[in-house]
Amino acid sequence: VQLQASGGGLVQSGGSLRLSCAASGSIFSINTMAWYRQAPGKPRDLVATITSGGRTNYKTSVKGRFTISRDTAKNTMYLQMNTLKPEDTAVYFCKCNVCDWGQGTQVTVSS
After folding, report:
1. Strand-pair category, 33-38 with 2-6
2. Residue 10: what pLDDT?
3. Is residue 38 predicted with pLDDT exceeding 80?
4. What is the pLDDT of residue 102?
5. Which of 99, 97, 108 lies closest to 32, judged by CA?
6. What does the DSSP assignment read for 31-75?
7. Model confidence at 29, in pLDDT bands (50, 70, 90)?
8. Rounded CA gap, 3 and 106, in Å?
9. Per-residue pLDDT averaged across 26-40, rounded?
10. 1, 41, 87, 75: CA torsion to nearest 10
């Protein structure tokens, strides 16, 4: 399964962005999907997960600000990010239980 993340950009503190992750290939084998992020000089960090049944989990620092969702008809996962902070600046990656890492999308939040 291949994943392609998109939707990143430059936004001011307090702003919003919506990331998308399109899946292609053997999508029937996908169960859990997730968003990760990696800031410069730091390890890749789990941000949010969503199961095939719609159960979600979030990193503490993004709870109440970020919302993960998936549209199975479109084979796409989303990350709605509101009230963005400079510390959210990172490259964001999407992942699934049967996927390799793909290219991420850069999110930059200016203060």
Report:
1. unpaired
2. 98
3. yes
4. 81
5. 97
6. --EEEEEE-TTS--EEEEEE-TT--EEE-GGGTTTEEEEEETTTT
7. confident
8. 15
9. 89
10. 0
